[in-house]
Amino acid sequence: MKFNLKRKLQRFCLILICSLVLIFQSEIPNVKALPMDNYQGEMVIEELRLKVPADAKAAWLNAEKEIWEPWLSSQDGFLGRQLFWDKQKEEALILVNWKSKKLWKSIPMSEVNVVQQKFEDNVKAALYVGENPFELIYEGELDKQR
After folding, report:
1. What gap in Å lies between CA 48 and CA 46, rounded to an integer?
2. How confident is the model at residue 25 (pLDDT cuts 50, 70, 90)?
3. By C-alpha distance, which of 35, 13, 15 is closest to 23?
C-alpha cells in the first residue's frame, strides 16, 4: 500500500511539473514574437558583405560612388547608406537604410541586375581584370527593434 501511494505521488508530481512548464512556457517572449514579414512598413537595413582585397579597395569605393550611389539616391524609400572596410579580413560591409521593406523589395531585380552589371564593368575596367573581384559573402537584412 505504501509503495502504491508513493508511486501515485511521484506521478502526480511529474504531471504537476510538466503542467507548470507548459503554462510558463507560454510566457516566453520568443513564442509570442511575430514573423519579421509583419514589419513591412518599418525601416529596414540591407546588409551586404563583400570580399574586397586591399589592392582593389580604391576601385571598389570609386565604383560604389559612381554607380550605386546615384542609382540608390533615385529609389523611393532609400534613406542612406554606410560603407565599412575591415583591413585585416579584407571585407567590406555595406549597410543600406530603407524606409520600409515593402519599398525596398518593390524594386525589380532586373533593374538591380542592370546596375550591378554596370558596377562590375566599371571595376573590371579600372582593375584591368576579366571578372568581378568582389565576392558576395553575405546578404541579409536588419530590422529596427522597438
Report:
1. 7
2. low
3. 15
